[in-house]
Amino acid sequence: MDPLNLESRxxxxxxxxxVNQFVVFKLGGNEFAVAIEQVQEILVLGPIARVPKTPGxxxxxxxxxxxxxxxxxxxxxxxxAGPARDQDxxxxxxxxDAQTVGMIVDLVTEVVKFPVSAIEPPPPxxxxxxxxxxxxxxxxxGRILVILNLDRILSPEEMSELSATxxxxxxxxxxxTAPSPSA
Length: 183
Known about the structure:
This protein is mainly beta. It is built from three helices and eleven strands.
């Protein structure tokens, strides 16, 4: 699958029938979505340079057009079991709390539009992922999509640690430490 065209980010809907767009992806057989406004691009999974002494859900770093980006395994972060990665795995590059972060997902499926009225607050007992990561639940054509709040994927302490890690590496020879994934 080629990277999705994310250029058409703005909705033409009027405020009274506001529509939000989301990038939909799979993790361990479950469907999730993130706001398209936060997504910068979607990359084919390529080599990731490991960084010692980082949390277990951090896979390492990649070099995307000269910018060092930390990559986290979203399945590990959300504690979702599933099969080993295959050729469908992708890296969603997104803006998370003012930092660019890559997130490994099993499969990116589509971009969908949801009217605000079709998005509900998360139910009190969500068993798939920790409720702190969930912004809401979208219902569409009998499907239920768990909409993630990317700004809560990492704690402020984890964000500081990632900034320090990527900042230290950004001054070094990026191309030697983190090969670019093929897009």
